[in-house]
Amino acid sequence: MQIFKTKLELTRFLSSEKKVKSIGFVPTMGALHEGHLELIKQSKKECEITVCSVFVNPTQFNNATDLGNYPNTLKEDLLKLENLNCDAVYIPKVNDLYEENEKAKEFDFGTLSSTMEGEFRPGHFNGMATIVEKFFNIIKPTKAYFGQKDLQQLQIVKALAKQTNSAIEIVGVPTIREESGLAKSSRNALLTTEGKKDAMLIFECLNYCRANKNKGIDFLKSHTKTKFGKLKNFELEYVEFVALNTMLPITKWEKENENAICIATYIDGVRLIDNIIL
Asked: Is 223 a catalytic residue?
């Protein structure tokens, strides 16, 4: 595994691999867990070279405290990547990717970015798309891998690839879960034992909606809100039933696998998101 701290070093390495026909790319902000590692594994299966970035992108944080508190586990992250034989890791400083005082680009993703995370985290998707576009231009991957847990992000990255006429294939990888059903997340480490137990409610509600799809959206949305309302340490930010291709709320089901149920909630102050595609 080779480690690169500047885009110049990385591009020199990639250009030296002239016989390589496929490059897989996995962008991360570190604090790697099994969900991230599954992306690496899939890239390793499908591509000749796998590049992983570890970079906490400042432009996608609308809260300076969140940025300051983001976990730094680089030593452990590099060990995990080495164990998976990741070919190249890019760990740049901010000034390798951004000019001084450079702001996020303004993108137009239409309805994809207007609801849910777009509403509650203003500016987040512009910052995310800005850094992803930079990475794509530097690495020029054949395929890029993103987790389905961040479903809205995944749909926006697909839109970004289309808007930029990119040939990069955006691959969505199903959410990796703990035995309890809780989606793997770097934030899970911030939960207490009791909080982790309570957090099982998220997947329980998603599963209930899947099993009772015939009861209709209005009933299922009300049922989910009622369930969350019974726990004092929960603060439900949103539960939305949306069309996958627009991310807009729906009142009746679209075709099979074109609907998603998305939940964002705080548990003892820790924000978690999850979703299920129906």
From this structure: no
